[in-house]
Amino acid sequence: MSRILEFQNIKKSFSGREVLKGISFEVNKGDIVFILGTSGTGKSVLLKNLVGLLRPDSGAIIWHDKDISQYSEEQYLEVRKNCCLVFQQPALFDSMTLYENIAFGLRRLTNLNEEELDKQVRDSLKAVDLKEEILSLKPAAISYGMQKRLSIARSLCLNPEILLFDEPTTGLDPVSTQAINQLIFRLSRKYDTTSIVVSHDMHCALDIADYIIVLDKGKIVEQGDVDKIKCSEVPLVKDFLQEVLDANS
Ligand SMILES: Nc1ncnc2c1ncn2[C@@H]1O[C@H](COP(=O)(O)OP(=O)(O)OP(=O)(O)O)[C@@H](O)[C@H]1O
Ligand SMILES: [Mg+2]
Q1: Is the entire prediction scored with pTM above 0.90?
Q2: Atom of ligand 1 nearest to the CA of 46
Q3: 42 Cα to the center of ligand 2, angstroms
Q4: In terms of Cα–Cα distance, which of 86, 50, 37 is closest to 187?
Q5: How many beta carbons lie within 10 A of that of residue 116, not counting itself?
Q6: How confident is the model over 129-163, as pLDDT tens digits?
Q7: I need a surface site. Which of 48, 74, 137, 159 has the fewest CB within 10 A?
Q8: Residue 211 · residue 224 · CB < 8 Å
Q9: Helices 98-109 and 73-82, interaxial angle, to 10°?
């Protein structure tokens, strides 16, 4: 299993308050990695550091043997094409059709001609189980769950090496949550994509993760495969596991 990404002692403060307190972990190619933690613990900040929307104060993020945290804004375009972040909110452009919403990143980050672009848009829409009839609609005309899928298609169409999901199931009912979870699993395996999923949902993590990292107050308190996490003695991990048991009983 080859390593694709490495966080080395990443620290980040806002106005003197340290939010990330030295985060180190590795991601192997093809894995689905879940990052779990309570609200406000720095999960979104961590993902934003990877795609250059925020920069760490210290530490390194190694991708293809280079420390990308020092990249210029221009160099980061290459990173964003290959490490695509699906945001917590679908954040679609209201005034654009769904087609143009998906095509937006392709137009900005690739040199595809219109025919190739059209194929990419339609293939990625199909991959997230949406129908072509909706492509001429505006975002307001489809449900929140469909908007979430569309935002995944918007990232998927770039054929990224790493897909990053920030709370992909927040705000969804249990059936849609399960469907998005299975979609992430299917896409990761089908396209051999590496996925990093930020979540509160231990149930989803136990279902599809290859590796789980648990964050608390800006620090990693536990990490390992599903079997290791299930046996963890860390109080926060036990709380998360108890929630899963309570929900199943
Ligand atoms: N751009 C910013 N400027 C100042 N503070 C920030 C900024 N972004 C995040 N923070 C602070 O960093 C902390 C961690 O935020 P973050 O959004 O990473 O939490 P989270 O773990 O993703 O939480 P949630 O599960 O609610 O999404 C919060 O206290 C937040 O207010
Ligand atoms: Mg967040």
Answers
A1: yes
A2: 18
A3: 7
A4: 86
A5: 12
A6: 999 999 999 999 999 889 999 999 999 999 899 99
A7: 74
A8: yes
A9: 130
Q: Are 77 and 66 in contact (CB under 8 A)?
A: no
Q: Which residues of 145-171 are buried (b: 16+ CB within 10 A; e: fewer)?
A: bbbbbbbbbbbbbbbbbbbbbbbbbee
Half-sphere exposure of 184 (CA within 13 A, CB side): 32
pLDDT digits (tens, 9 = 90+) for 39-68: 999 999 999 999 999 999 999 999 989 999
Q: What are the structural domains of the chain?
A: 1-24+34-71+163-249 (3.40.50.300), 93-160 (no CATH)
Q: What are phi and psi of 144, to 5 degrees?
A: -60, -40
Residue 5 CB partners (closer than 8 Å, separation 6+): 26, 27, 50, 61, 62, 63, 162, 194
> Which of 43, 49, 85, 88 has most ligand 1 atoms within 8 Å of its beta carbon, as the pocket-test mutant?
43
The answer, yes or no, to whether any atom of ligand 1 lies below 6 A from the CB of 40, is yes
CA dihedral defined by 167, 66, 58, 86, rounded to 10 degrees?
A: -10
Atom of ligand 1 lying closest to residue 218 CA: 14
